[in-house]
Amino acid sequence: MEQVVDITEAAALHIKEMMRQNEEEDAFLRVAVKGGGCSGLSYGMGFAHEVEEDDIQSEHYGIQVLVSKEDAPILKGTKIDYKQSMMGGGFTIDNPNAIANCGCGSSFRTASNTGTPEEC
């Protein structure tokens, strides 16, 4: 089983809680890349119920993760964590392929894929 993204234990615990709250315990977590954001590309995470033909599947702390083969080169080596701070908590995404990130932290571009930049 090829691993494209790495999900920390803290992120996995939070994702499991979100799955429980939304009655999605049997779902997969899909991690994706889409065009947009001020740097050209943005991340997407959501629940999926079917494995597509071109999906790469891996497991992290009991969570089944799906990444499409098209998004895999852009996401290879990406680490998803969950950090708690005085301002609340949130997911952090560390992508070694990103050469530029937006100030908001949810948009990026890579050397080979600039996406379609938009206004923040």
Feature tags:
120 residues, mainly beta, three-stranded mixed β-sheet, globular, 2 helices, Hypothetical Protein Aq_1857, Chain: A, single chain, 45% strand
Percentage of residues in strands: over 45%
By DSSP, the count of extended strands is 9
Secondary structural class: mainly beta
CATH class: Mainly Beta
Oligomer: single chain
Structural Rg: 14 Å
CATH superfamily: HesB-like domain
SSE succession = EHEEEEHEEEE
- Do you know the CATH architecture? Sandwich
Low-confidence regions? none
The main sheet orders its strands as 4-5-2-3-9-8
Put simply, the count of helices is 2
Shape: globular
Total count of domains: 1
The end-to-end span amounts to 37 Å
Q: Which percent bin holds the helix content?
A: 10-25%
Instruction: Specify the biggest β-sheet.
Output: 6 strands, mixed
In short:
With 120 residues, this protein is mainly beta.
3D architecture notes:
The protein has one domain: Hypothetical Protein Aq_1857, Chain: A. The chain is 14% helix and 45% strand. It has two helices and nine strands; from the N terminus they run βαββββαββββ. The protein has a six-stranded mixed sheet. A three-stranded mixed sheet has the order 1-6-7. A hairpin with a 5-residue loop joins strand 2 and strand 3. It is globular, with a radius of gyration of 14 Å.
Give the helix/strand layout:
Elements: E1 5-7, H1 9-21, E2 28-35, E3 41-48, E4 55-60, E5 63-68, H2 72-75, E6 78-85, E7 88-94, E8 98-101, E9 107-110
Parallel strand pairs: 1-6, 2-5
Antiparallel strand pairs: 2-3, 3-9, 4-5, 6-7, 8-9
